[in-house]
Amino acid sequence: MIKTVCAIAAVACLGVAHAADDGGPAVVPYRPSVSTPAQLSAPGWLELEAGGLRASDSGASRATWPYTLKLAFTPDWGIRVGGDAWVHQRVGGASQNSFGDTSAVLKRRFAVSDATAWGLELGETWPTAKDSVGIGHAQTTINGIFSSDFAPGWHTDINVNETHQGGSGAGSAWQLGLAAALSRNLTDAWGVVGEFSGTHQAGTPDTAQLLAAASWNQSPAAVFDFGAARGLTDATPRWQVFAGVTLRLAKLF
Predict the structure, then answer these.
(1) pLDDT grade for 59, boundaries at 50, 70 and 90
(2) Domains present along the chain, CATH in parentheses
């Protein structure tokens, strides 16, 4: 837990150093919710999302340093690459450390109006972590997105996805995922989000959780967030706490 807190503090210091309002475009945070919006970041600008997360349950805990690099080519096409820079997992009295799994996602936005858009993502995750810590086999995910500003200050993101699980197991090869988030701007700087998410895979227990978080727009170049999630099933970590930042790094083209 101490390492996780130190990582969050380091990211926060980095964020402050890069957070001056230089007149550039505002960042588009995807964290901390499970769902992602249809909107992409400003074309040509590289964004970094990073932070720390700790999940705990009876007799087990897991601390990670998630990261994501995002780059949009146009307002409608973009990519992101991410994963966990570090994972510390403890089950019973045994603990393990490892680099996490790595994923890449290609994204397409379909704008309906200034307030509403659909999105489609195709992602691949590679097992770059130890088998006992990560997924163990490559996974492919197709994610459908609906995003809308439906009232002044209110926004929703709904994701429905299917993930093909590599390898053999007792359950189905396909896992259905759902995430529905509702966010609200409280002031120009502060916002809150609530979300329900979960998964269903035939032959394995369902997962489900409720998430609540707050965000602070330090400037258009940096948005900080913190919050917690509560598991609703035995297959879901009982508690998760997290904090992080979304940063605009540099204009590449």
Answers:
(1) confident
(2) 2-251 (2.40.160.40)
148-168 per-position pLDDT tens digit: 999 999 999 999 999 998 765
Helices (H), the chain: 2-17
**Can you tell me whether residue 171 is helix, strand or coil?**
coil
In degrees to the nearest 10, what's the CA dihedral of 109, 227, 232, 55? 100
Pairwise CA distance, residues 123 & 142, whole Å = 6
Q: Name the H helices within 51-159.
A: none
Asked whether 105 and 80 are in contact (CB, 8 A), the reply is yes
Q: What is the dihedral of CA 189, 214, 155, 11, to 10 degrees?
A: 80
Q: Name 125's bridge partners.
A: 103, 139
* Beta-strand pair 239-251/45-57: antiparallel
- CA nearest neighbour of 218 among 1, 6, 30, 16: 16
